[in-house]
Design a protein that fits this description.
By secondary structure, this protein is mainly α. It has one domain. It contains four helices and no strands. Helix 1 packs antiparallel against helix 2, helix 1 runs parallel beside helix 4 and helix 2 packs antiparallel against helix 4.
Length: 124
């Protein structure tokens, strides 16, 4: 949605600026920089990663480690709870990084729209 908003606002503001026969100026240049950064940050968030999210523990691993081998001193539910907590921690760390990139993208797109609007207002 943010990528679509960046593209839409960039198209409208860029078209209006191009039709105004006025130089881009510092504010307009900063709007372009904000637009490019916003698009780049959106791509960073959306680009597929080689390492995937971790949600489950392999049933084959559980069968090999817990069904075929008796472990009376250990608890499989406790083992699964610990595995799920580890999965959560790894996923949360990755998601926190993506949130930071998304926040940077949102800020850049917002700055681009505001600066583009200011550029148009200064030229009319």
């Amino acid at each position: 949605m943010l990528l679509a908003a960046a593209a839409l606002s960039g198209s409208f503001l860029g078209s209006a600026t191009a039709q105004s026969d006025v130089s881009l100026g510092f504010v307009g240049g900063m709007a372009v920089v904000g637009f490019v950064c916003g698009i780049g940050f959106c791509i960073k968030v959306l680009w597929p990663k080689n390492e995937g999210w971790t949600f489950v523990t392999s049933p084959k691993q559980l069968t090999d480690d817990w069904v075929k081998i008796a472990r009376p001193e250990e608890s499989m539910p406790l083992f699964l709870a610990n595995c799920l907590e580890d999965h959560f921690d790894r996923n949360k760390e990755r998601l926190d990084g993506l949130y930071k990139w998304f926040q940077a993208a949102a800020f850049s797109v917002g700055a681009s729209v505001i600066l583009g609007s200011v550029q148009l207002a200064m030229n009319h």
